[in-house]
Amino acid sequence: MPMSQSTFTILLGGELSLTERLRDAIEDSRFIAADGGMRHAAALGITPELWVGDFDSTPADLADAFPDVPKQPYPAAKAATDGEIAVAEAIARGARRLILAGALGGERSDHALQHLLSAVSLAEEGFDLLLTSGKEEAVPLVAGTIELDLPKGSLFSVPGFSELRGLAIENARYPLADFHLPFGSSRTISNVAEGKVRFSLRSGRAIVLARPYDLSGV
C-alpha cells in the first residue's frame, strides 16, 4: 500500500510494546524520531525521515545504527521539548494525523503529561491524534464526537482536563448521556467497553485513556 503523506508517527522516549494494534496504527505512516525515541525504530523495522532533538539521551551506538537519517539538532537549553519540535516538523511537512508512539509511561511523567496536554490542544486545532505505548492508548476528546474501537471487556477512563458538559458515552458498561462532570471528579474513571465506544462532548477538554489488552472487565 502507498505511504500516507499526511499521517506521521513521532517516536518518543517512553515505553513502547510491539502489539498488533500498534503495528496496524502505524502502517503506511511517515516517521520522525525525537532524540532517544529513535531506539524504537529498529524494533519497528522502520527508518525515520528526520531525527530531531538535543541528542542528550542518544547513545553513540544508536547514532551509528542510523547514519543516513538527517539530523536536526537543537541546544539542550531550548524552549520546547524534543517531542514538540518533532510534532512541529511533522505539521510543517503536511501532517494531519499524528501518532505519538512512546508518549505514555516511561521514566518522565512530566513528559507524558505534556504529551497528553499538547494532544488536546492539537485536537482543538483540528488534528487527529493517537498516543500509544502499544498496550495503552489515549485519544483527545474535545467538543464533538469520536469513536474508539476497543475489544469487549477492555478498560478505559475519561479524565477531564476541565469541567465537562454534555458528555455522552455509548456502548459501555456504564453509559452516560448529557452528563456534567465537575473538574477533578473521578466519576469517569474505570469503565468497560462493549466494543466500539462512542464519546460525545458539548464543551470541555478530556482524554480517553484505554487499555485494549486489559480484559479484566470481562
TrEMBL record:
Q: Which Gene3D superfamilies match?
A: Thiamin pyrophosphokinase, catalytic domain
The reply on keyword Transferase is: yes
| Database matches in Pfam families | TPK_B1_binding, TPK_catalytic
Query: What are its E.C. numbers?
Result: 2.7.6.2
**Boundaries of every Thiamin pyrophosphokinase thiamin-binding domain copy:** 144-207
Instruction: Enumerate the InterPro entries for this protein.
Output: Thi_PPkinase, Thiamin_PyroPKinase_B1-bd, TPK, TPK_catalytic, TPK_catalytic_sf
CDD domains on file = TPK
Q: List GO molecular-function terms, semicolon-separated.
A: ATP binding; kinase activity; thiamine binding; thiamine diphosphokinase activity
Q: Which GO BP terms sit in this record?
A: thiamine diphosphate biosynthetic process; thiamine metabolic process
UniProt keyword terms in alphabetical order: ATP-binding, Kinase, Nucleotide-binding, Transferase
PANTHER family linked to this entry:
THIAMINE PYROPHOSPHOKINASE
What name appears for this protein in its UniProt entry? Thiamine diphosphokinase
